[in-house]
Amino acid sequence: MSGGIDSTVTAMMLHDEGYEVVGITMKTWDYASSGGSKKETGCCSLDSINDARAVAVNRGFHHIILDLRDEFGNYIIDNFVDEYLAGRTPNPCVLCNTHIKWEALLKRADQLDCEFIATGHYAQVRLQISGGENEIGRYVISKGLDESKDQSYVLWGLSQKNLARTKFPLGKYRKTEIKKLAIDNGLIELANKSESYEICFVPDNDYREFLKRKVNGLAGKIKGGDFIDTNGNKLGTHEGYPFYTIGQRKGLGIAFGDPLFVTEIIPSTNTVVLGKKEDLKKQKMWVRKPNILKYESVFAGMEFLTKIRYKDPGTMSTLSPFEEKIMVEFHQQVTGVAPGQSAVFYEGEDLVGGGFICKNEND
Questions:
Q1: Given 43, 93, 114, 200, which residue is catalytic?
Q2: Against a cut of 0.85, is the pTM above it?
């Protein structure tokens, strides 16, 4: 229970259905320790924790605060920093869901003798039985009914054993219906509460300053690199390669005659390559650490819709697995393939699986 409307209504719905509910609020990050300048907001703030506890007390079920700062920092934040230093653009929400909101939470659920965990994600999960002589059951995630709020994209890393113990009560509802449920239950202030879309541990939304604060001497160690064009010609200097992402146009700190975009980041030489918009177009990419949910595995020639970012409508593609990676060939060119981000495969409304985008087949 983050203190927001979705997780709160989730707990209320399950309690009303007769489940014995234990509300869990996870303290994953202490923003004051990061040196940020703004007031602590989001799921780890004192206000959010108090909001979650108040609903639990009012509804008559238990509420517990879990301190997961060590686990979160050691895995999510360290990975966030390491990915930028490797010239990639990380997706911390995917790792947080996989390793904190499920793996770490289920350990606590076992200690509390809880059979299931439930979250306020707008997604659905079902057990699908395949036909044949040896019937195999697999848990499949599908999109939430409210397409504008669907969160299946960030759930591709979940395991079958964890999905077997997962409930998504909001998956069959639209956001407007959830707000009405909150209002009908007297939670008017909660229904009107603004939602944050920032990275939870970077509430001021300035990841550059976060990196500088987190990594001592980062700015001095890497500043003074070159901007080059796609032919290797020097165009100017930049602040340091971790401070740029593929597709970035604004905030380059230098003016050019024609619009230029970041098309490649080369950590070994502290170089950022700039090119035209057409230089961002790709027909093929590689995906590492794939996790396939709907099937036991994928084989060469299978065709799925592939999303390369959360709000991407997706592009049809053909998959070819190679050892621990998957090659994805798009049926038409796509723009802004960013290493480190998630590539997520869909078959209709179903989430097939996903993985992390590589720089190349050797990354």
A1: 200
A2: yes
